[in-house]
Amino acid sequence: MLEILIVGAVSSAIYAMLAVGFTLIFGVARILNLAHGSFYALGAYGAYFLTSQLKLPLLPASLLAIAAVALFGVGVERVLIRPMRHSQLAVLMITLAAALVIEQALFLGFGSEYRNVPAFIEAKYHIGGVDVAGARLLALGVGTLVIAALWTFIQRTRLGSAILAISQDPQAAQYMGIPSDRIFSLVMAISAALAATAGILAGPFLSVQPTMWLLPIVKAFAIVVVGGLGSIPGSILAALMLGYAETLVGYLISTSWTEIVSVLATLLMLVVRPAGIFGRRAAF
Amino acid sequence: MALRSGQRIDAAGAAGFVALMAALPLAFDSKYLIGILTVSVIYGIWAVTWDFMSGLTGRENFGHSLFIGVGAYTAGFLNTVYGANAWWSLPAAMVVAVLFALLMGFPTLRLKGPYFALAMLSGAVIMQRLMLIFWEHTGGEEGINGIAPLIRSQLGFYYFALGCLAAVTALLLALARSHWGLILRAIRGDEATCQAAGINVTFYKIASLAISAAFAGAGGALYAHYQLQVSPQLFAVVTSILIITMVYVGGMATIYGPVGGAILLVLLTELLRNFGEWRLMVYSCTLILILFFLPGGLVAPTWRRLRAAFGASS
Fold this sequence. Notes:
The complex is a heterodimer of chains A (284) and B (314).
Chain A: H1 2-29, H2 36-53, H3 58-81, H4 88-110, E1 124-127, E2 130-133, H5 134-156, H6 158-168, H7 170-175, H8 180-202, H9 214-227, H10 232-252, H11 258-272
Antiparallel strand pairs in A: 1-2
Chain B: H1 2-27, H2 31-57, H3 64-81, H4 89-109, H5 115-133, H6 135-138, E1 144-145, H7 154-177, H8 179-189, H9 191-196, H10 201-227, E2 229-230, H11 237-250, H12 256-271, H13 279-293, H14 299-309
Antiparallel strand pairs in B: 1-2
Helix pairs in contact in B: 1-7, 2-7, 2-10, 2-11, 2-12, 3-4, 3-5, 3-10, 4-5, 4-10, 7-8, 8-10, 11-12, 11-13
């Protein structure tokens, strides 16, 4: 029982980090970024490369990797996405193509073997009769902290209100003198950094290989559909639901069925309530 | 009269193209070439079916491989597990693919926006996982082996596949140029206005997805009976992206363009064989370049220029 509680919380935290970034850039810039999963993969590979090839200690390597991925995200937005923003489908196409280019680049650079990302904490902890790896607890802790920090940033700072304003009414926000293009870059950086952080934290207990971008994007999409596209509280709640639902299915039926949960949730939610739990617009 | 001459040039072009494709294996008697041509023709079927739904309505399908894989596995199961005659595969694959189209299309196509694109992507990813999860029944990574060939002679099978491609393309072209196609294009342009004009937008979107899925599934069955083996790799997102790239190279919403795009890309890929690992990289970079610099594609605009040179005014 306690095990389900902890394992579910850990996967929820990873999912929440992924989905919040995915929904943030959608809510603000109306960009559905299929390369979001690639930022997650790049984070994990960045940490792997910097620690094992350049022999950096893990903490600076991780920070460096996150910063690099954030910068890369801004570059992708500037160069590839911005000229395509007139059409949502063109954005989907270009980001999907970018995701594939990144997958192939990782494949050519590192091969298709699984790579090991070192964990910050190697120890196992004994909580109430359950053994939990330190890396998982750290993922839970850091994930919660990062999302809380992001939430306060958006709610309490001036820059945060600018982000909120654009997500509510981009035109009016621009008339008020908010530089929307600069805000898009900033949000893209935050979103990419969140995904990279999730990749680094999940790296020690998940498989790090070139196609690792795919399932996270499927799950982020499921979470965002259930929570409501563009809604951060919705994503967090839906991430908790999916994290626990998958863990429960894993324990009660079989781990092989967990992958089905997300797609089933997506399809059911689209039939029952397309706007999601906290979505404002009905199917925009 | 001008329109007639245009149609005559189109008909001549199509006939010339089919004749060329039919003559190639006769001119160069090589099993290798026939194999490549067969694959290119099957990709042509997939590309043209993708274009019929996604090109015309503008609802991009990122999981076309779902229908292909489902069709291929249906063929594989029927043939190896139930021992059915190979010719049952084609209709059965079409029926199963249509069922999947309804299952995926009903929740997603009622809605506006990109739900459909992403839901199809998820659907294909999950089906690929399912094939690995239920490895006792599906053969896991290995897939299903020992599928009987549809036609024993390699050349005969190639001509059958080419005939299928020609028939599917002709049918979809006729549909695209009919009232039906006009409505699909109108949906692409402005869905709300179509709805206001009393058009049942959802019906047209789901029905065109079902048509697209049916022939894609049949193409999957053809592929299964050509490779004599199916693997979960058929469901891979890469398959869908290859098809989308072919359509973009051919020219979106032109129906005949994607056929040319598919054949062109498959043949070019054979030339790139030496690049091996770089092949997919080349594909994805091509896609990005086309999106940026040739949004109208390559094949269809070339054909339009050719027919203008022959004196067709429209």
